[in-house]
Amino acid sequence: MHAVTVQIANIQLGIDVQEVQEVWRVSDVLPVPKSSPMIIGLINRRGAVVTLVHGHHIIDVPADTNARSDEYEVVILVHGGEHVAVAVSRLVDTIEVATDELLPIPPTLAQGAQRIATGVHAGSDKFTVIVSAEKIFEYVRTSTSGVSPMEEL
Question: Most exposed residue of 59, 63, 136, 139, measured as fewest CB within 10 angstroms of its CB?
């Protein structure tokens, strides 16, 4: 499996490239009043409205205090015909992951990251937590009143 790697706070995550539509930087975000704190707002990507959510909310870590509040590095995930954009601290790279060699999820990993993880890839210089877009969508759905990211808005 090839994985797109991103960083949220000090945790490096890997997402199967098959679950990533694209990565990019966005600055034009429409806020959604009275929405879940997880939701940053709406973005327009090639004529489609996509919900942008805070990655740090998903993995239960403090927000990056050095991040600009007017510009986001974003990974657009696709699952079951739905799209959601996740704001990350940093886009890193792509890596090759042998799924049969994934390590178990350590109990010391942030609880939110454990919730979406499928295993850990031990790279030559860094561990990467491999996560599931399906689990991310399910968490976003249940954390935003039980509806899909698009239905809430």
Answer: 63
According to DSSP, the residues that pair with 79 across neighbouring strands are 82
Query: Which residue in the block uniquely carries the two structure tokens 């490096």?
Result: 12
Token duo for residue 4: 């797109």
Nearest alpha-carbon partner for 121 in 147, 96, 139, 87: 96
Do the beta carbons of residue 46 and residue 85 sit within 8 Å?
Answer: no
Helix, strand, coil % over all residues of the chain, rounded to 5? 20, 45, 35
Q: What pLDDT, on the 0 to 100 scale, is given for residue 145? A: 65
Region of residue 135 (left: phi > 0; alpha: psi -120 to 50; beta: else):
alpha
SS3 113: helix
The pTM of this model reads 0.89
